[in-house]
C-alpha cells in the first residue's frame, strides 16, 4: 500500500511550524498509543505511521528532502542520498544489476520554506496593501560562504569513500552475492573532511539572521490566502538555492462591517417614523464613499437593502461583491411629554392597547385630596 503524505498523517499544512507539528503529533500519539488501545492492531499501525511522519517532519534536513523528493527523499531513496531500503527493496535490485546508484549528498540542497502569519484589516482587503515584515531565518554564512570550513584552511577528501560520499557493502544471501551502496559514515555522505570548521557558523554553513522585506497583498484576500515570496525562505546547503517564504493571511474583525465571501453586511438603525413613512439616508461604505439608501414606506425591521458592487473585490478579478444593509428599527427609551401625547393619539387611532398614563406621585396625592 502506498504511503500517505506525512503532512496528511499529522493533519497539518505543508507550511506548519515545528511547534505545530509537535503539538499535532502529541495529540494524535496519545490517542493511538498501543497502551491506550490494547490489542487494537489498527491503532498500533496508525501509531507507527504517526511516529514515522514525525521523525521526518521534525528533522529540518529530512523535512526539506521530503518536500523536494517525497517519501524517497525522506528515506534516502531516488533523488536523495544513501539509499538503503533493506533486503528486497528497490535499492537492492538496482545494486544487484547495476552496481548502485550515484550518491547525491554532495549536490546542492534547496533550503526549506518558511511560514509568516500576517494580519490585515478589512480596509486593506478592499484596496490591497504593502506590508513590511521581519523574517528570522537561516542565511548562508558570510565568513565561509556556505562551504563550512574556516577561511584559509583546506577541505580534505574523505579517505574512506575517496570523495564519493558512499561506500560499497557486499553480503551473501540465498540469491547470491548482494552488492549495496551506502552513505559513508565517516564523512556522512559529503565526501569531505573539514579539519577546521568555520568559527562563525561552527561548520554548519548557515547562520541565524533576519531580513526586512515588503510583501504585496493584493485586494480580495481572505483567511485561505497563501502568498508565496520566492527565494525568501531559509538558505540552501552546498550551493542550493533558498526556499520560499509562505505568507498566511489573517483578516482582522471590523467594528461596522461583517464579511461573507465578497459581500459585506451592515446593520443600520433607523427611527420608527422613518420606517413607517420612508426616508432617504446616506450610508458610508467601507472605502469611504457615500451611497444614498432609499427606505421605502412601511419598511419592517430586518429588511435587507442591497447596494450593488459596494462590497469587496474578488481576488484576482475585477468583480466586486455587494453591500447588504440590514435595517434595524430603533425604539427610543425615553420620550418627552409632547412626544408621549402624539404617540397616545397614534395608539388611539390604531386601536392599540397601551399602558395607562402615569401622572406621577404628586398628581396622585392632589387627586386624593380633591384638589
In terms of topology, how is this protein built?
Layout: H1 6-10, H2 18-32, H3 41-57, H4 60-69, H5 71-75, H6 90-98, E1 114-120, H7 122-127, E2 129-140, E3 156-157, E4 166-173, E5 176-183, E6 192-193, E7 206-217, E8 226-229, E9 245-251, E10 257-260, E11 263-271, H8 272-277, E12 279-284, E13 290-295, E14 304-307, E15 323-330, H9 337-350, H10 361-369
Helix pairs in contact: 2-3
Polypeptide structure, described:
With 371 residues, the protein is an alpha+beta fold. The chain is built from 10 helices and 15 strands. A hairpin with a 2-residue loop joins β10 (257-260) and β11 (263-271). α2 packs antiparallel against α3 (41-57). It is elongated, with a radius of gyration of 35 Å.
Amino acid at each position: 500500500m502506498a504511503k500517505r503524505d506525512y503532512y496528511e498523517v499529522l493533519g497539518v499544512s505543508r507550511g506548519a511550524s515545528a511547534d505545530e507539528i509537535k503539538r499535532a503529533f502529541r495529540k494524535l500519539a496519545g490517542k493511538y498509543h498501543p497502551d491506550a488501545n490494547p490489542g487494537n492492531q489498527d491503532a498500533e499501525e496508525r501509531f507507527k505511521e504517526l511516529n514515522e511522519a514525525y521523525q521526518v517532519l521534525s528533522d529540518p534536513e529530512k523535512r526539506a528532502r521530503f518536500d523536494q523528493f517525497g517519501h524517497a527523499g525522506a528515506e534516502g531513496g531516488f533523488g536523495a542520498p544513501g539509499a538503503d531500503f533493506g533486503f528486497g527493496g528497490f535499492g537492492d535490485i538496482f545494486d544487484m544489476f547495476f552496481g548502485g546508484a550515484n550518491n547525491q549528498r554532495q549536490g546542492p540542497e534547496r533550503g526549506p520554506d518558511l511560514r509568516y502569519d500576517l494580519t490585515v484589516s478589512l480596509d486593506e482587503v478592499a484596496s490591497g496593501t504593502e506590508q513590511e515584515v521581519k523574517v528570522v531565518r537561516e542565511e548562508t554564512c558570510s565568513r565561509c560562504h556556505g562551504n563550512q570550513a574556516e577561511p584559509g584552511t583546506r577541505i580534505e577528501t574523505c579517505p574512506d569513500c575517496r570523495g564519493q560520499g558512499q561506500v560499497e557493502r557486499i553480503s551473501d544471501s540465498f540469491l547470491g552475492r548482494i552488492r549495496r551502496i551506502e552513505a559513508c559514515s565517516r564523512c556522512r555522505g559529503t565526501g569531505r573532511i573539514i579539519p577546521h570548521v568555520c568559527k562563525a557558523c561552527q561548520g554548519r554553513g548557515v547562520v541565524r539572521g533576519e531580513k526586512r522585506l515588503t510583501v504585496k497583498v493584493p485586494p480580495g484576500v481572505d483567511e485561505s490566502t497563501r502568498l508565496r515570496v520566492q527565494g525568501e525562505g531559509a538558505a540552501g546547503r552546498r550551493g542550493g538555492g533558498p526556499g520560499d517564504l509562505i505568507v498566511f493571511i489573517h483578516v482582522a474583525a471590523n467594528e461596522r462591517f461583517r464579511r461573507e465571501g465578497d459581500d459585506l453586511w451592515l446593520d443600520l438603525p433607523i427611527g420608527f417614523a422613518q420606517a413607517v413613512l420612508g426616508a432617504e439616508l446616506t450610508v458610508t461604505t467601507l472605502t469611504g464613499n457615500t451611497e444614498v439608501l432609499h427606505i421605502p414606506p412601511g419598511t419592517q425591521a430586518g429588511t435587507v437593502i442591497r447596494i450593488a458592487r459596494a462590497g469587496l473585490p474578488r481576488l484576482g478579478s475585477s468583480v466586486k461583491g455587494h453591500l447588504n444593509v440590514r435595517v434595524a428599527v430603533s425604539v427610543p427609551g425615553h420620550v418627552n411629554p409632547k412626544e408621549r401625547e402624539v404617540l397616545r393619539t397614534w395608539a388611539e387611532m390604531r386601536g392599540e392597547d397601551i399602558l395607562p398614563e402615569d401622572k406621577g406621585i404628586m398628581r396622585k396625592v392632589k387627586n386624593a385630596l380633591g384638589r
